[in-house]
Structures are given as structure tokens and as C-alpha cells.
Design goal:
The complex is a heterodimer of chains A (524) and B (186). By secondary structure, chain A is mainly α. Chain A has helices at residues 4-10, 18-23, 27-56, 66-101, 109-128, 154-182, 195-226, 240-257, 260-274, 281-294, 310-322, 324-338, 347-370, 372-378, 382-412, 418-444, 459-488. In chain A, helix 9 (260-274) packs across helix 15 (382-412). Chain B has 186 residues and is of the alpha+beta class. Chain B has two domains: 1-37; 39-178, Sandwich (Ctag/Cox11 (Pfam 04442)). Chain B has four helices and ten strands; from the N terminus they run H-E-H-E-E-E-E-E-H-E-E-E-E-H. Classes of the chains: A mainly alpha (524), B alpha+beta (186). At the A-B interface, helix 6, helix 7 and helix 8 of A face helix 1, strand 10 and helix 4 of B.
Amino acid sequence: MSSATAHEAHHEEHPSGIMRWITTTNHKDIGTLYLWFAFIMLFIGGAMALVIRAELFQPGLQFVDPQFFNSMTTMHALIMIFGAVMPAFTGLANWLIPMMIGAPDMALPRMNNWSFWILPFAFTILLSTLFMEGGGPAGGWTLYPPLTLQTGHALPFVILSIHMMGLSSIMGAINIIATVLNMRAPGMTLMKMPLFVWTWLITAYLLIAVMPVLAGGVTMLLTDKFFGTSFFNAAGGGDPVMFQHIFWFFGHPEVYILILPSFGVISSIVPTFARKPLFGYSSMVYATASIAFLSFIVWAHHMFTVGMPLSGELFFMFATMLIAVPTGVKVFNWVATMWKGAMTFETPMLFALGFIIMFTIGGFSGLMLAIAPADFQYHDSYFVVAHFHYVLVPGSVFAIIAAVYYWLPKWTGHMYNERLGKIHFWLSTIFVNLTFFPMHFVGLAGMPRRIPDYALQFADYNALSSIGAFGFGLSQLLFLYIVIQAVRGGAKADDKVWEGAQGLEWTLPSPPPYHSFSTPPVVK
Amino acid sequence: MNPATRRHVIRLALVVAAMFGFGYALVPLYNVVCQITGLNGKTTRVASEEAAAFEPDLDRWVTVEFVANVNAGLPWTFAPVVHRMKVHPGRLYDARFVATNLSTEPLIGQAVPSVAPGEAAKHFQKTECFCFTRQRFAAGETRELPLRFVIDPRLPKHVKTVTLSYTFFDVTSTAKAETETTQTQN
């Protein structure tokens, strides 16, 4: 890496046009790339969800054959998790962490460039499998063998793309940890960091701990299929259930990777619009750390019906329920922050409130699923689909949308259209509930997941879900319009943007200069 | 890169490498846990001298059931000769299974055992079993497959029935690949 002074002298001479974006090492440029990439993936994954919902609008087989339907459910999950939610949070981290801790850029700018530019290639490979002989992966995003080993030519490509996604997020995580630990402004002690930085620091550690385990698991699948090993092949002394253990050892921390940064976003937004400091800052930090720790010892609650001794079921049941305690601490802290606050309801706050209420609904259905004996009924039913969509869509996705509305004036220097933002919120909230709430009922009544056809008694609720899904999908086009409108122009945003905003990023001009803090600010 | 950043990057990269290794370490860990707890019905093999050292418990009867399955759509038939036996723990017994290769090709099969309930698995011990080795069958061949087992008298008292299930897998392609590799190595 060239010396810092040389870099300073040349920083205005960066290339223009497409080469600017390909060669950029600037945290704001890379953050923007990540966010647009996530946005594109949201629409691709969303289109797949609409294929699923169109097929499920009525019982019987309408539009697609069952194999393609299954590859839609599989690809929808892989794209939304690895392509939309994770890159969106990494994009927010890139944009915000240096500005929040008073640093000029990320600690490892070139690795930052690399970790983004791997992603378009990874997802091109993944999407190309849909056109291969034997179709795309159709065995579910959990890739359980032996079913997943029956994938056609797509399997090695899927595994390669998962390796690339993993590499990208590991490099992103290393970069974030190195930045947070080494580049804070003088006086910014760990316990003075904004919660968004804290939650991302913990998330980055989770990523480093579990993404390599997934890489190991999918490599075992690859060698089982092509190199004659028998990790999961019973004929050779292996065990397919072992894959489920390895997968969920990654998979459960992964779901917290998808939600912890949103806790940080909500903890930034709620105090701003309640015009009060965050209630219980240190308990928020400790709660985040406890959730991260507990995520490593609860994985087998995804496998209650696979077969486990009673003591195992009890352990995983109680450990899982324990997670409700730190999560409850967070929800009560947000409510206490709002208590007697001078609240206003701009779009970011509306999405944050929607998050708190609907994420809690998803959390409660999670508690129901944690009850081992009850899980025997819920397992692999639409109740599970309802649960994880409640925590991921009005949970993680709403938090990302809230973050975009909250920081967009800072990023672009223009206010977004508040009226359209509120309409976007209400359309999203109504349709997201119309989509996912009926799934609780059909799930409890026994409708299994991952099927293209279903029994007649589920028809009404499925029709409602499909209407909701199309409404929700179309509402996001409004979001795209609002974002583009704000990028292109609009009312000038002042430096602080929001009356109650706190934090270093609001001391910078809107939009902030290309290099944020060339001289570090002093935090008292 | 300043020294503190470099130190962090090196340490974090080591953690990544260690966690990749940990993923693989889960494989032997999983097998050890299954062996200790008898989870998944993994059975053990013992030497015949060890089995002869058991004191037969003539006051106690345990029912042993035999189940035989053929993995998805293979051209085999596979069944136990006797479907259930009443046995005394600590005494050696013989049982037989019969398998037929219905195809016109020679095939190599491998039977994989599993015992239910799981807690009985580590007490169900075999001194001789066709499942220890791969079985070669000529086209159309029928053969009896022997099994000699003993139930450890330490089997928990409440277990009255033990089910031994075999699943027969076709390993012809794997076996061929392995032979070829050994030949090229030689």
C-alpha cells in the first residue's frame, strides 16, 4: 500500500466513468456499490418470490413445473440472504462506520474493493445455473444431502458461488473489525461507539466464526459428489444428519448476522425521533453480545424432528428460549427510549416502529417454534415460513429501508420526498402483513413448505398471501423511485438533517466530502 | 498498513483458517459423540473372546427384531431369514439374511446397520457380520449373509425389544473407482 501522504496528494485524480467504480477504494463509493447491488438482488429475488406466489395463488399446477418451483424457492432464499440482506448491511457499514467513528476511510481499502467485486461474479454464476441442464439447485437453500447431491450440472457452480460469497463476507468482516479496532477518533472509547458500530463489530466476529464452517460443509458436499468421499453417504459409513449439524452450526449464527446490524440501525433512529438519548446503552451492548454467544449453542432447534435424545431436545429448547431474554432487553429499551419522548413520525421512524412491532411478532412465533414438543407439529410447515419472513422482511428489510431513508439526505445532500416515503411505508406494512400473516394459519392447519400445489382448504389464505406479495413487490418500485429522485435532486439537506440526530456523521456536510475526517475529530 | 491493523488482519485470518478446520473437526467429533451416546444407532464390533467373557443372564429375555431395506430402486432383494428372535443377554447367537442380485450385471453391495432404540446401540455387539465388508454378487446370485451377535448384559433393564435394521447400498461405482486408483498407484 502506498504511503498515506502520496495517496492524499492524488486523491482528486481518480478515474472517471466506469473505471471509477471498478478501481475505487473509497468507502463511500464501495458502500454505494454494495447498496445498489443489494437493491438489484432484492428485485431479482423478489421476482422469484412472485413466481412462487403466482403458482400458489390457486391450488393445482398453473404456471411452472414442480422442479422449477423448487429451484425458485431455493434461489429466492440464497439470493435474498447472501445477495440482498447481507450486502445491504455491508454497504451501510462501509458508508457509515468510518463517518461514525471519525475515520478517513476503512482500514483495508483495496481488500474492500475486492470483497465487493467478487459478488457480481458469484451471483452471475449462481443465476446462470437456472439455464443449465438439470436446472438450478432445487433441494432448498439448506442444501441437505442426499437430495442436494441429485442436483444436475448446477451443483459445482452453486458451491463455487457460495464459496465466493463466503470469501466476500469474510473479507468484509475482517475489514470492519480492523477499522473499528484501529481507526477510532481520539476519545472514542469502545463504550462510546454508536450502537450500529457495536452491532456490526459483533456481527463481523460471527461472520468470521461461521462462514468458514459453511465453506467446509459445502466442500464436503463437493467431494462426496465428485471425489468419492463419504462424509454424508451412508453407504460409505457417513451420515447425512451430520450435514444438518454442520449446516446449522453455521445457519443459526447466520440468522443473527442478518438481524444484529438492524438492531444497531433501530438504536440510532429511535433516539433521534424520540429526541431522547438511547435508554440503557450498555445493556444494549451486552444484550447484543449475549445473543451472539447464545447463537452458537442453539443450532439443533432446527432439527428437533430429525431424532435426538430427550436431554438434547431439552437443552436446545431451553437455550433457545434464553435468547428471548437479551432480545426482550432490546425491545424494552427501545420502548423506554420512546417513553415521554417528543416523538415525530418521519418515514425512518415509521419503518423503525414497524420493525419493533413486527419483529416482535416474528420473535414470538420463534418462541413457539422453540418448544420442542410443539415443533413436531410446526416443523417444515408454513408456520416456519411465516416466522422467518416476519423477522427477515418487516425485520431486517424494514431496518435497511429505515436506514436508507434516515441517512439518504446525508449521503446525497437532498431530502427525499417525505409524502411518498410515508405512502411507501403504509403500502409496505399493509401488504407485508397481508402476505405473511395468513401463513401462520395455513401452517398451523398443516400446509407443508416447499410445495407447488396444496389441499383445497388452504386456497383462500394462499390467495390473500399472493395478493399481498404482489402488492408488496410493486410497492418497492415506489421505493426505487423515491431513492432515484433523491439522488438526482430535491430540497437541500442541512448538515444535521434531523433535529434530534446525534453522532459524528451529522457533523460532516451533506453530502460528506470524498474523504470524511482527514483530521480526526476529538470525542469528549 | 499500520502495524496494529496488520496484527489484527493476521490474527483474524488465522481464526478463519481455524474455523474452516473446525468444520472438518466436527466430523470425527460427531462420530465420537454418536459412539458414546449410541445416537443414530451406530453399532460396535467386538472380538469374539471379549464377547465370550460375558456372563449370560438366563433370567432375562430380550426380543431382537431384524429389518432389511434396500436403498432406493436397486435391483436387489434383501430380507432376514428369521424376523424376530428371543435371546438371553450375554449369549452369542447366529442370524442370517438372504440377498439376491436381480440384475444381469455383477454388483457390489454394502449393508449399513442401525439399532433402535439408540440407547441399546452400544450394547448390541457383533463379532461377525456381513456388514463389515463389501459383498460381491454375480449376476442373479443369491447368497446367505451371516451375522453373529451378543447383547451386552449391561443393556438397560427397561429395554425389552431391540431392532436391528440393515440398509443395503449399491457401492459398485465407488468400489470400481477405488480399485482403479489402487491399480494406478501400483
